[in-house]
Write a structure and sequence with these properties.
Layout (H helix, E strand, L loop, with lengths): L5 H6 L1 H4 L8 H9 L7 E8 L11 H8 L4 E7 H4 L10 E7 L6 E5 L5 E8 L4
Antiparallel strand pairs: 1-3, 2-5, 3-4
Amino acid sequence: MSDKPAAAQSKDPAFANRASLDCTEAADAQRVASRPADGGIKVISATYGGNCQAPDGNATKDLDLQCGGSSSCTYKINVVRLKDPASGCAKDYRYEYMCGNSSEPIKGFVKEEAGLGSYAVLQCKSD
């Protein structure tokens, strides 16, 4: 932890995004330790609010950061972290990924209002 007081931390850019992440350092360490030899989850794309004309792929980087390389991942769709790409519209969440060396993409969908605490579950089967 930091020696800075909480008020100073909230204004310090180094701490600005840290509080908004759902993943703890312990969970990150566990995720890294559980990465399969074949590379696990390979995120192709993720779009938050495509049904509201939000840009395709606008959530790909965040999904990859949270889940890429893991054998399984439960990803919390959070409007605070993803930002609101289309104000006043109930946004869905669409994602696509592959597992390890597979050439078959897996698609997932979470219905409208996805950013209010819904989860996307990405799972690669173990052989």
